[in-house]
Amino acid sequence: MKRILLRIAVVAFLPLVLACQKSTTSPEKPRPVRTVTVAPADGRETLTQTGDIQPRRQTDLSFQIDGRLARRMVEVGSVVTKGQALAVLDDGLVQNEVRASEADLTSATSALELAKSSLARQEQLFVGQSVSQQQIDEARASVRTASARRDVAAAASLNAKKKLGYTQLFAPEAGIVTAVGANQGQVVNPGQMVARLATLERDAVFDVAERIIANAPADAEVRVHLVSNPDVSAIGTVREVSPQADPTTRTYRVRIDLPSPPRQMSLGAAVIGKVELPEERLVSLPASAITSEANAPAVYVVDLATKKLVRRAVRVSRFTGERALVASGLEAGDVVVTAGVSKLRPEQTVALADLDGGAR
C-alpha cells in the first residue's frame, strides 16, 4: 500500500518539476555586434614598392689561360666601350710557344716537300724498272706521314697564335666596371674574375609580395622615381618576373625595364615604383570582418528581418593595410559584421551595436 502511494506521489510531483525547469531556462540573448552597411564604390588603387637601380646584366670577365697580370687598364667605375682592352698578361712564354710552333711547322713542311720529291724520283725510276713496287709504296707512305705531321704542326701553330690572343682581355660590350679581382703582378688562373662589367642598360628591381603580383596587370606602366628626389622619374614596363618566390622573404623579384632613365638614376640608387590598378567596383571592409568558409573568404551578413546571421562567401580582390577590398559576394545595403567574427555562427541572433555601445 505504501509503495502504491509513493508512486502516485512521484507521478503527481513530476509535472511540477518539469514546469519549474522550463520556467528557469531562459532563451539566448541576442549577441551585440558591430556592423557596417555595404556601399560599393568605384576606385583605382595605386600600388607602391621600394627597390633600387641595377644593371641589366653583370658579367665576370676573365682570361682563358693562366699567367702573370702585366697591366690592368681599368678601375672600379671606369666606363668602357665594346672591344676596349681591360687587362694584359705577360706574354713572354706564349711568344716562345708561338716561335717553337712556327719552327715545327717549317720543319714539317720541309719534310713533306722532301718526301714528295723522293716519291717523284722513285716513280720515274719505276718506269725504267730500276726500283721495285715496294719502294714506291714506302715512298708514298713517307709522303702521307710527312703530310700528317705538317697538319699537326700547322694546328699547333694556329693554337699558339690564338693563345697569344688570350693574353689580352677585351670588353664584350659597352658598360661600367663595378669590381676588379686581380692586380698588376698577380698570377691569375683561367676563369678567375679580373673585372666585373655591368651593362649601361638599367633596370629598376623590386621584391614584390605575391598579392601584388596577382593584382598588377602584366603590361602596366610603372612610374619610377628616386627616393631622394621624386622629381627625377622614368616610365618603365615589366621585363622579368622571377618564377619562384624567395624562400626566406616569400617575395618575387621583378625587373622593370627603363628605356631611357635619367643620369641621376645611377646604379644602386634607391627608387620607388608606382603602378595604378584598373578601376573596379569594390566594397571596402575592415580586415577583421573576413572569416572563412570551406577555406575560402566569407563574411557574416545580418538578416534585418530576423536579426539572424548568414555566412556568405565573398571574393577578396586584395588587402590594403587594415582593409579588405571585396570584389563580389555583397550587394549595396547588406549589413556586415565587422568584429568578433571568430566567435559567431550562422543563424545566431544578434543585436546591432551602435557606435556608443548600445544595441538595437
TrEMBL record:
Q: Where is the signal peptide?
A: 1-19
Statement: the UniProt record of this protein carries the keyword Signal: yes
The domain of life for this entry's organism is Bacteria
Multidrug resistance protein MdtA-like C-terminal permuted SH3 domain location: 285-342
- Where the record annotates domain Multidrug resistance protein MdtA-like alpha-helical hairpin, the positions are 101-167
Question: Where do the coiled-coil regions begin and end?
Answer: none
Q: What sections of the protein cross the membrane?
A: none
| A Pfam family annotated for this UniProt entry | Beta-barrel_RND_2
**Domain Multidrug resistance protein MdtA-like barrel-sandwich hybrid stretches:** 58-194
- Major place of residence: other
The entry's localization annotation reads: Cell envelope
Q: What is this protein called?
A: Efflux RND transporter periplasmic adaptor subunit
Organism equals Pendulispora albinea
Q: What is the lineage of its organism?
A: Bacteria, Pseudomonadati, Myxococcota, Myxococcia, Myxococcales
